[in-house]
Amino acid sequence: MFYSILLFMNRKDFVKAIVAFGCLKPLDGFSLENKQFRTRSYHVCMAPDILLANPAYIRAFKDVGIDKVWLTGFMYGYWYSKTPVLRKARRLLNEAGIAAGIINVPLGHPGDSLGSRSGDVPLTPPPHWEMKIDINGKRISGTHIFPGAVKENLEALRILRDDDFKDFFLDDDFRLAVSPGQIGGNFDDSARRVFLDIHNYNERDWQMILSNIRQRKLDHKLKSFIDYQCDLLSGAFKSISRVSRNRTGNMIMYLGSEKAGIRLKDYSGFPFRVGESAFNDESFRSVKSKTNELFSVLFHRQFTTPELAYSETTAFPHDKLSAENLCAKLCISTLADVRNTMFMSGLTPFPLSYWQTLKPAMQEHSRIHTKVAGAKAKGILKGFFGEYARYVGKDDPYSLFFAIGIPFEISVTTSIEEDIVFMGDEDAQAFTEGLVPGLRSGQVIHRLKGTGVKGMHVEEKLEALFRWKNERLHLWKDVPYVQEDEPVVCRWYPAVNLVLLWNLAAVKRTVTLKWKEKKYTVTIEKLKLAEVSL
After folding, report:
1. Which residues contact 434 (CB under 8 A, 6 or more apart)?
2. Which one of 96, 143, 303, 451 has the minimum C-beta count within 10 Å?
3. What are the CA-CA distances from residue 475 to residues 402, 417, 419, 450 (Å)?
């Protein structure tokens, strides 16, 4: 088998094999053991030993309607849980009518991103695993594809598959960048030589690539380096998924894209967890953090179907995002038509008391989601996350316009037929240089300052965006919108004559939705959704 020969390959042969394997497409569809005939499905990630030691969690999961629990298995060279423990946890869950899957952590989190309560989980892979060298010469564990890591992950999947586990996810350290906004890859001498040889580049080309990475300047040589990293990651994923009979999903980091080695189109057809970023109350508090999360989820939804999409409804550390804010995160999945909510908190579960708050919110979102599932949201404003943002961007999208109460969409392509397009800095600079075709200058809104920049500069602050909005309200006669200057997301579903409003403020708001000649007075509880039937 493929995994049995990896250790006998030199690095160059391994790269060629893994890249070729990356061209494969999924063979079979992913299916849940516990199929649900309703719109919204709820899942939990859980350490099996904690589950076995605390049966109250299973009772709580059954009470709130959890469909599946994903158990921690293999973690970057170690078995967190051996198969007898996993089997016992699966049996108890199945007896409660809850399905079980496996989450493996394939490469290694950069830092203690797991939050082990006991402290007995190694923070780095074992000594025989290779470390990578970043562009600054620093040695880093994790986020590195090499033959030994792929072989051990393949073997772990085979063991779990043969033990009759069927569905798997790879945790989101399965990437080649340590953090969002970073251009990833391995820069050690051996990896450099293989890359240069495969692409017939020389040392001068390599120095140019390094310079362009530091300047975030995308040209065809830097693009070939980033595409090469994507080939490595996609090839490894496809080989792992083949062993699991194509029932492995990938967890994508916040705004995860090519710069992190993640070529999103390669994961279409597989279970696909969309990336979020704010995992504690402090980071989730601002309006901008909420619109950034929604932007990331909507961006990732361009590459997967609602049925295969999973949320990143995460608290980390486990009790640092309140139950109330976890409920607020459910709004993102409903607005983006993400059918599977995946509750996560590292290796330590949410406090049991959280489920008392989550239960009614889960039921409410299931009800609302049924009304808009499959319906296309229409908008006159367009958020754009193009090639330059994906390859060399800092992952700071222009997202705050979501909060001004005007219907919007998001896209990775542009069209002259679109109304107003909001661009982040890298895409706006590329547009100025004539590298983003299909738009007129008058269509583009950006944050860049200075002479010669095409498009309109609007500072990404609510007061500036509300001023811009109020200057144009008279133009939007056939579009529903919120009249007041309040931070509210407005999603419009014409096919079902419905508008959803998400109150981004931590206080109750009453706003006016104007639609043609009609006005609707709508009271929205703090951080919740309200429905308006047109």
Report:
1. none
2. 451
3. 18, 16, 11, 28
Q: What are phi and psi of 434, to 5 degrees?
A: 80, 20
- Do you know the residue count of the chain? 534
DSSP per-residue letters across 212-253: HHHHT---HHHHHHHHHHHHHHHHHHHHHHHHTTS-EEEEPP
Sheet holding 498-503, edge to edge: 488-493, 498-503, 529-533
Helix ranges (H only) for 22-65 are: 48-53, 56-64
Dist. CA 274–CA 13, nearest whole Å: 33
The residues pairing with 513 across neighbouring beta strands, listed in sequence order, are 482, 520
Q: For the CA atoms of 470, 474, 480, 486, what is the dihedral angle to 10 degrees?
A: 10
Structure tokens at 491: 């999603």
Q: First vs last Cα of the chain: how many Å apart?
A: 58
The number of CA neighbours under 13 Å toward the Cβ of 112 is 12
Q: Which regions of the chain are under pLDDT 50? A: 1-5, 7-8, 27-29, 31-37, 112, 115-118
Say whether pTM exceeds 0.90. yes
Cα separation, 256 vs 274, in Å, equals 9
Per-residue model confidence (pLDDT) at position 416: 65
Would you give the distance in Å from CA 53 to the centre of its chain?
A: 31
- Tokens at residue 242, please? 């083949």
- Do 327 and 266 meet the contact criterion of CB atoms below 8 Å apart? no
HEC string for 151-184: HHHHHHHHHHHHCCCCCEEECCCCCCCCCCCCCC
Q: Which residues pair with 533 in a beta bridge?
A: 498
Three-class secondary structure of residue 507 per DSSP: coil
Q: Answer yes or no: are the C-beta atoms of 172 and 251 closer than 8 Å.
A: yes
In this structure, the dihedral spanned by the alpha carbons of residues 70, 267, 400 and 173, taken in order and rounded to 10 degrees, is 50
Beta-bridge partner residues of 457 = 446
Q: Are strands 420-423 and 381-384 parallel, antiparallel or unpaired?
A: parallel
Task: Give all strands (DSSP E) within 366-470, no chain letters.
Answer: 381-384, 408-411, 420-423, 444-446, 456-457
pLDDT in tens, 92-148: 999 999 999 999 999 987 654 554 444 566 778 888 999 899 999 998 888 999 999
Can you give the pLDDT at residue 32?
45
Task: Give the Cα separation of 215 and 376 in Å (integer).
Answer: 38
Among positive and negative, which fits the CA dihedral 103, 104, 110, 116?
positive
Q: Which two tokens stand for residue 448?
A: 């860049």
Q: How far apart are alpha carbons 189 and 130 in whole angstroms? A: 13
